[in-house]
Design brief:
Distance between the termini: 67 Å
Number of strands: 2
Shape: globular
Strand order of the largest sheet: 1-2
Helix content: 40-55%
Radius of gyration: 22 Å
Length: about 140
């Protein structure tokens, strides 16, 4: 009986430790997101994107679509990655406005695209808690 009680107590402790580890992992993920440093993405944005989309992400009315509070950016994740990776031409609708301009491919690496996407999807009123990875970008094809 002592062995059974000891075994049950040990099993309980192991389960309690495992479940608290899972809570820690979830908390760590939240902390990692909250403490995320988007400075590399901001630097890339300033070097490659700000000339057209403006430093504040508001674009140019009727010419260059905004990235600030952009429904297209948030709702079309793969298309947004594809636009940076391969360029974009043709009509798109952003926040109810039609845009039909050309965006050239930026010549960025998959890591740079992930960094700039994470910056712009978490700036100017955008929020994206599902961070974009270099691996995700590498899987986006034309």
């Amino acid at each position: 009986m002592k062995n059974l009680s000891f075994s049950l107590a040990l099993l309980f402790l192991l389960c309690a430790c495992n479940s608290s580890d899972k809570k820690t992992d979830k908390n760590s993920l939240a902390i990692n997101y909250v403490n995320q440093d988007f400075s590399e993405g901001k630097e890339i944005y300033n070097d490659f994107c700000a000339q057209c989309h403006m430093p504040n992400g508001k674009g140019m009315p009727k010419v260059i679509p905004p990235l600030a509070k952009s429904d297209f950016l948030i709702n079309n994740r793969e298309e947004s990655i594809k636009a940076i990776k391969y360029g974009l031409s043709g009509e798109i609708t952003v926040n109810g406005e039609q845009y039909n301009s050309v965006m050239a491919a930026q010549g960025l690496s998959n890591e740079e695209i992930a960094n700039v996407m994470n910056y712009i999807t978490n700036s100017w009123g955008n929020k994206n808690t599902s961070l974009i990875t270099e691996e995700e970008v590498s899987k986006v094809e034309r």
